[in-house]
Amino acid sequence: MVQVFALTFDLGDIIQMLGDSVRVFAAKLYETGVGTSEIRRMLTGRELYAETT
User: Fold this and answer.
1) Checking phi first, is residue 41 left (phi over 0); if not, alpha (psi -120 to 50) or beta?
2) pTM (2 decimals)?
3) Of residues 31, 29, 32, 38, the one with CA closest to residue 46
4) What is the mean pLDDT of residues 2-24?
5) For 49, what's the count of Cα atoms within 13 Å in the CB-facing half-sphere?
6) Which of 5-19, 23-37, 38-52 has the highest mean pLDDT?
7) Is the C-alpha dihedral spanning 14, 20, 24, 26 positive or negative?
């Protein structure tokens, strides 16, 4: 059991919520038509940022 503010969650509930969030995020990316070039730009940006820190 995990308590966040006044709410108590079971670990299984937390994993379920995170899984649902990932699925919703992936669906939104698909709906908006994010293509491979946009994903490639995002990954390149992450790599460049990681090199600067």
Assistant:
1) alpha
2) 0.35
3) 38
4) 75
5) 6
6) 38-52
7) positive
* Distance between CA atoms of residues 53 and 15, nearest Å: 31
Name the phi and psi angles at 32, rounded to 5. -80, -5
What residues contact residue 3 under an 8 Å CB cut-off, 6+ apart?
9
- Please state, rounded to an integer, the average pLDDT across all residues of the chain: 75
Backbone angles phi, psi at 8, to 5 degrees: -115, 130
Instruction: Supply 53's token pair.
Output: 């820190």
Here the tokens at position 1 are 């059991």
Q: Which residue shows structure tokens 């919520």?
A: 17
Mind listing the pLDDT tens digit for each residue in 23-43?
777 777 666 666 677 777 888
